[in-house]
Amino acid sequence: MSEQVVLSPKDFKSDQEVRWCAGCGDHAVLSAVHRSMAELGLDKEKYVVISGIGCSSRFPYYMNTFAMHSIHGRAAPISSGVKLANPELNVWMITGDGDSMAIGGNHFIHLVRRNIDINLILLNNQIYGLTKGQYSPTSLEGQITKTSPYGSIETPFHPGALVVGAQGTFFARSIDNNLKLSTRIFTEAAQFKGTSVVEVLQNCVIYNDKAHGYLTDKEHKEDRQLILEHGKSMIYGKDRDKGIVLDGLSLKVVKIGEDGISEKDILVHDAHTKNPLMHLLIANMLNPEFPVALGVIRAVPTETYEDKFYKQMEVVKEKSPIKSMQDLLHSGNVWTV
Amino acid sequence: MYLCCHKNMSKKMTDNIEKIKELEEVVIRFSGDSGDGMQLTGSLFSDTSALLGNDLATFPDYPAEIRAPQGTVGGVSGFQVHFGQSEVNTPGDYADVLVAMNPAALKANLKLIKRGGTIIIDIDSFTEKNFEKAGCVSDPLKQLGYRDYNIIKAPISTLTRESLKGLNLDTKSILRSKNMFALGMVYWLFHRPLEFTQKFLENKFKKIPIVIEANKIVLKAGYYYAETIEALHPSYRVAPARIEKGTYRNINGNIATAWGLIAAAEKADLKLFLGSYPITPASEILQELSKRKDLGVKTFQAEDEIAGICTAIGASFAGQLAVTSTSGPGLSLKTEAIGLAIIMELPLVIVNVQRGGPSTGLPTKTEQSDLMQALFGRHGESPLVVLAASSPSNCFKYAFEAARIALEHMTPVILLTDGFLANGSEPWKIPDMKSLPKITPPIVKEDTEDYQPYRRLNDEMVRGWAVAGTKGLEHRLGGLEKMAVTGTVSYVPENHQVMTYEREKKIEKVVSKVPDIKVLGEQEGELLLIGWGGTYGHLYTAYRELKKEGFKLGFAHFNYIKPLPANTYNTFKKYKNLLVCELNLGQFANYLRLNFQDLEFMQYNKIQGLPFTVSEIKEKILTVLQEETK
């Protein structure tokens, strides 16, 4: 086979000028994907990047890999078709909160349910950017947008909750301005066998600026973010003095050293447990009551769809007397005149 | 291979020899409640007849409801088979023999029985209660002029029960086998052996021997009953057809379509991928291909119609023969994705098994409903190739052809079949795989220097297929307008016009693969009968019969819709009258008008969810010819 070529992030950049707005969170996500692909060390032709429609879905044009900018909401089935056709390909799906939570919502849950090995990067800016500022399924209740001039009255989707509800095997969350974290998560997602959903909280500088501003505020971000690692306690805060404990069937923020709470009382993150309840609670933690959880929330290795698909095919091939079209044509009731 | 019970009866048969009538062709219609097993009964009779060498055509006609209320006209399921010793191209207009398992079945089919025909009814089911269920004021038998028909009132239910007395079976199972009694009677009437059906039962119920035994007993009971009662004499013989030598099998349109696709994949040396969603009457294609994992066929039952076609587009990007199958409503849902495949110029076959529309329309009934949608049903200038199969068995040929054109011309192709072709079956001379042409898609080799996604490779303007995963060919495709040659995104106004022309021209150039239209009969003159797709059998039979009767006309039937055969216009110009017959309001006629604006087209249209009858076509043609002589 070909000798191992070491690729750098810039090998994954296409020659096309990137046309996102200055200050858009997508730029950083693109860089993280370039870095992660270089880190993964696969041959360039093994990567396929598929997107739907939306600002984030322009992504494929900026990738120097096989890529397709498809139609609104349909990146999930197109990615599925690519992966089933050739399981050796490393398939990335780039989508947004409109593309995957609204028009492509149905495809999203079915992809997750089937557990096809696809890395799904969902850029969530809680707004429709490409169509210039209408509310999305993840927009907050009360959010003022062009189509909700008096405030949105809809209940937003939480992508993590949908993944858990659809019996997903992998869910992680990152934020656009943390390039290091995004790169690490993307690489872990790509190495995970199964549908890996990574929600990237992303800023739309034009139509929903500072959507995640509270979370990213330089002064307070350590107190508002909880960066998870499997096997480590859920401790956070500027002074590493806050933690998460279970209180009945809910989570609670506690202060270490107060009310007799010590480090050992704090929950230890187990991303690998099959039971999705804790993952659901963690994924649903919202500011300001809780820190927002970043990192890999759930990663439960489960046999992939394509593994089962090809395994079954081999079994049938071995058992069947029909080995060619000619055999099939002459099978069953035939007669000669 | 003649079976035992024939031998046992050989003496009796010789006694009756003078009572056997030779017939050229016969139409039998089996009808009953949708739970009565009429589809199976009809299929078994057809298979037996085919094995004996008859030519035949079948037409299953069933309700959309799985179990409509018992005994109602809405719940009647019918299976018509037309078999003969000469060429048979339609399931027949009217039945020589009608089997009616209940009053509703008789009521539903009163208009479909030939004068003088034989009607076999289960007299046990002709009760006041069942008349009421069927919505009859009184016995529907009374509506028939007794003298015009040979009515056999057989106590089918009673005799079925009687013959199974010794077996330990519940009433439900007993009554379920009464269709075998009717089948046994019909077998005797037409001198068919029971062997094939017996073998079928042995296979089908391998695990429940008592059911095999019961069905066999009832089958024979029906056979003997028919022999015993005088009313059925004479019996009939339909000699084997004088058909081309070869190995044959029965095949319906859906199976033929599925197999044509597998054959194409084999000839292209590609894997076949079907992304689909179940829909009547196309589901059988997905079902059949799902069975064919043994041949490496990949099927994906998607979450909806859109996902069906989108998985296929993904598979096409990754280098497989990609197909999606559907029917009208599904085609509507797929239109946006078809547009994507058009702009990306990826090979894709879309099989549309047409049914009555609009909306949910008539899911189980046939109609040439979607020609306009196939041709024009997308936003933007979005040309593609449209083909139509014209008999159950040639669905194989046109599925193969659709795949060949898609792969060699890098384009989506819509193959139109319909409910009539999909469910109808006929004997088919099995092709030799070696006789099928090799398919050579323009796959780009790895590390090809200066690869450009939208460079046209040949006179046909085909672009190269750079399969995802091939070294050195990384490129981007998408729904945004492409720059000519490089394929990068382009908003340049002039480029959009260039690319729009290129896409249109590329489809026009598929004409190099389209054979000239051949006219049967008169090569010029008063009248050209024109059809397309699934109506071939009926139109051809009407043409053949009129020709035999001394009328002069030509007949042209189209399988290639876009592009049309190159000689179409010159062919049409040779006739004074052009009569387009189709099962819609004139979609093909309008398409022809669009293409040939100086020609006038007459129309004959039927929109009843049913195929044409030969007699109505003949009548229409005669009206036109008589107008001419006036």
Structure commentary:
The complex is a heterodimer of chains A (337) and B (630). The model of chain A has no long low-confidence stretch (mean pLDDT 96). In chain A, 29% of the residues lie in helices and 19% in strands. With 337 residues, chain A is an alpha/beta fold. In chain A, strands 2-1-3-4-6-5-11-7 form an eight-stranded mixed β-sheet, with helices on both faces. Chain A has a three-stranded antiparallel β-sheet with strand order 8-9-10. Chain A has a domain of 209 residues: 3-Layer(aba) Sandwich (Rossmann fold), CATH 3.40.50.970. By secondary structure, chain B is an alpha/beta fold. In chain B, helix 12 links the parallel strand 10 and strand 11. In chain B, 54% of the residues are buried. The N terminus of chain B is likely disordered. At the A-B interface, strand 2, helix 2, helix 4, helix 10 and helix 11 of A face helix 3, strand 9, helix 11, helix 13 and helix 14 of B. Strand 12 of chain A pairs antiparallel with strand 9 of chain B.
Rg of chain B, nearest Å: 27 Å
CATH architecture of the domain at 9-211 and 303-308 in chain A: 3-Layer(aba) Sandwich
CATH topology of the domain at 9-211 and 303-308 in chain A: Rossmann fold
Record the strand order, biggest sheet of chain A. Answer: 2-1-3-4-6-5-11-7
Mind sketching the topology for me?
The complex is a heterodimer of chains A (337) and B (630).
Chain A: H1 26-40, E1 47-51, E2 66-69, H2 75-85, E3 90-96, H3 97-103, H4 105-114, E4 118-124, H5 159-165, E5 170-175, H6 179-191, E6 196-201, H7 213-216, H8 221-224, E7 225-227, E8 235-236, E9 242-247, E10 250-255, H9 277-283, E11 292-299, H10 305-319, H11 325-329, E12 334-336
Parallel strand pairs in A: 1-2, 1-3, 3-4, 4-6, 5-6, 7-11
Antiparallel strand pairs in A: 5-11, 8-9, 9-10
Chain B: H1 4-8, H2 10-15, E1 20-23, E2 25-33, H3 38-51, E3 55-61, E4 76-84, E5 95-100, H4 103-109, E6 113-122, H5 128-133, E7 150-154, H6 156-163, H7 171-176, H8 178-189, H9 195-204, H10 209-228, E8 235-238, E9 247-252, H11 253-268, E10 272-276, H12 283-291, E11 298-301, H13 305-317, E12 321-326, H14 328-344, E13 348-354, H15 371-376, E14 385-388, H16 394-409, E15 412-418, H17 419-423, E16 425-429, E17 476-478, H18 493-508, E18 520-521, E19 525-532, H19 536-548, E20 554-558, E21 560-562, H20 568-572, E22 575-582, H21 587-595, E23 602-605, H22 614-629
Parallel strand pairs in B: 1-8, 2-5, 5-6, 6-7, 10-11, 10-12, 12-13, 13-15, 14-15, 19-20, 19-22, 22-23
Antiparallel strand pairs in B: 2-4, 3-4, 9-16, 14-21, 18-20
Helix pairs in contact in B: 3-8, 6-10, 8-10, 9-10, 11-12, 11-16, 13-14, 19-22
